[in-house]
Amino acid sequence: MQFWTIRKNTIIFILVAGLALVSAASWWLLKAGDTVVINQQTGIREIHMVTGEFASTMKNGKKIEAYRWDPGTIFIEKGEKVRLVIYGVNGQEHPFRIENTTIKGTVKKGEETAVDVSFDKEGVYRLICEVHPTKEQNGPMIAYLVVD
Question: What is the CATH number of domain 45-147?
Answer without folding.
Answer: 2.60.40.420
